[in-house]
Amino acid sequence: MLVVNGKSILNGIAIGPLLVYHKADAAVSSATALTPQEEWTRFEDACEKVKEHLADLYEKALEDVGEENAAIFEIHQMMLEDEDYLDAVKDMLETQGTSAEYAASTVGDQFSASFAAMDDAYMQARAADVRDVSHQVVNMLTGRTDGTLLGDRPVILVADDLTPSETIQLDKSKLLGFITRHGSSNSHTAILARTMNIPALVGVDIDESWDGQMAVLDGYHHCAHINPTPDLLSSMEEKRKQDLEDQAALQKLKGLANVTLNGTEVNVYANIGNVGDVGLVVQNDAGGIGLFRSEFIYLEADDYPTEEQQFIIYKRVVQAMAGKKVVFRTLDIGADKQAAYFHLDDEANPAMGYRAIRICLTRKDIFKQQLRAMLRASAFGTVSIMFPMIISVQEVREAKHVLAECREELVSEGEAIGEVELGIMVETPAAVMMADELAEEVSFFSLGTNDLTQYTLAIDRQNSKLDAINDPHHPAVLRMIRHTIEAGHRHNCWVGICGELGADPTLTETFLRMGVDELSVSPASVLPLRRRIRSLDLNQEPETQVPACDPCK
Ligand code: PEP
Ligand code: MG
After folding, report:
1. Which one of 296, 297, 328, 332 would you pick to mutate in the ligand 1 pocket, going by the greatest count of ligand atoms within 8 A of its CB?
2. Predicted confidence (pLDDT) at residue 127 exceeds the cutoff of 90
């Protein structure tokens, strides 16, 4: 048995034979007996046919994986209308007298290489799209197809790389999972894999000799076992069986309301850290995004992401949610989340140090870039913005002032901006105690129970030695939650929970009895939480006691 590691795209297990996929040989002949004009007509016909094919793929993807994830096939269609690309092909036909397939292939390679050399990560990622599209035009011109990748029996596909168009065309009933050498967890292919609910590993040192061998892809542990032992195989088969049974039962909850037996409804949203997670949100039927941890964009970058780079990401997220609410949290860098280019000083107590809103209010250049990007994205859907680590009314007013400045600037620049709801994270005891005053400033509170637990219990959340006493069920934490919900409601603020505690099924009843309006959890927890909510009857005797709340303000 051989064990290989990679990066898992989806938690899950796939068991089956491996099929090593080779792309068709891209070498094409430059020779032709036709005139440049005749070759140009062949090229134009091929482009039209590829566009029709892409339009079909778009429709298929729309049904399978939703609008945002299908959009890549529209982008591919647009690439075939790009003037620069078309002019370059025409020029080559006229000046070099080559075949149309040779010109399409050469120009595709050149464009792809120039995208790959750009500094901007988004543009670099477009190199694969250009290669994919020109490959399709060449196939159309040569009458060659990549064929049906998959045979009759279900397989785990092994490939150097898979393009979005290859991925979406795979017959899901024959695809157990895939393992690739290249590909990032943010690539369109990864987004499609997640949305299609296919376990996948990327970044694996693949080997052609695996073809036909049995394998277990273990997405939970980021690895694959090639030629597994009989013991491992049977234990993984058992685990897979349980997973399938549970997933099948959960799928039946899609489209159903998050409502208790006695009719109490609550919003169940999802927490994500980057645009690649949106597929999971859609797949798990979350009602919105309750926490977009924007700092992950900064953590993945080598330098401050520009307004434009952020705008592209926020807009994609908002569009993918197609009108459902997206709550963007402004930068929460510092403490355990460090990016070298911020040059933050070492601190004795970084969790209680220079972080989050404290950085934003002293580095307004960074803050404004981010707020402008979020405001611009608001024109494309339903956007809320919330500020982390708030301890005072003064901070909220200052942050609102910066937001208003950004809004004015954008309006005077003629940018479209939507209605933006404003909120704060309640994750410090100070914010809890000031909840009545803070609620006058904003429209919603989102309880960050991870930090609220750490600051309430004075237990560093990073310190594993204190795990035994780090108890988020502590009555002090639960009373803070209850106090915040009640204060928020007194001032027409809706109140949600976006910390990990929101997904704890043993507390769902408690939170609903407290009157929480929204629970925002990891995408995979959405349907299990819905199941829990639908099993509760708040007219019955409480299974759990709601902790008493100090009525003093
Ligand atoms: C929290 O503190 O509960 C929270 C949601 O934010 P983070 O975990 O990112 O600090
Ligand atoms: Mg927090």
Report:
1. 332
2. no
